[in-house]
Amino acid sequence: MVDLTKRRLFTRQEVDKDSIRLPWLKDTESFIQGCTRCGDCSDACETNIIVKGDGGFPTIDFSRGECTFCYRCAEACPEQLFTAVEQRPWNAKANIQAGCLAHQQVECRSCGDMCEPMAIQFQLSAGRVAMPVISLEDCNGCGACVAVCPSTAILIEHQK
Length: 160
Ligand code: SF4
Ligand code: SF4
Ligand code: SF4
Known about the structure:
Elements: H1 4-14, H2 28-34, H3 40-44, E1 50-52, E2 58-60, H4 72-76, E3 92-96, H5 110-114, E4 120-125, E5 128-134, E6 154-158
Antiparallel strand pairs: 1-2, 3-6, 4-5
The structure holds iron/sulfur cluster (3 copies).
One iron/sulfur cluster binds at residues 22-23, 44-47, 49-50, 67-73.
């Protein structure tokens, strides 16, 4: 007979601690230990970006849309996993990869057009198309730039 307790512990240990889970989490460790995988946060999310990740734990899929920082996921959660709304939601930031069209001398400003805090500036240099550069100070990790990128070159990552 399968020992469900063991399977549960195993799953929690195996979970990827680096992936972007939810905004306002107290910390990843207590989240992994305390989340019951009930799905209430996912049901509450106004942009439907919370999906089941590894081990069935909620994770954010920015290819579906952006986080509006509405705090509904935190409010819906029956566990004590989140900080107060006044706190900074997370230290996630956008990171543009080498697949960006500008690296291939193709003009594109889709990400910049979507960025409300105007964290993406385009740097001009002679004879080259403008290159997007992210101001880490201004980027709030909302992920609005991810889905619009035609070459899926933008990742949202925890700032170490
Ligand atoms: S803050 Fe709102 S938009 Fe962002 S993940 Fe939570 S419910 Fe979704
Ligand atoms: S609502 Fe809370 S306990 Fe339920 S899946 Fe989301 S984070 Fe986990
Ligand atoms: S994650 Fe949001 S704030 Fe950051 S660069 Fe992308 S659109 Fe702008």
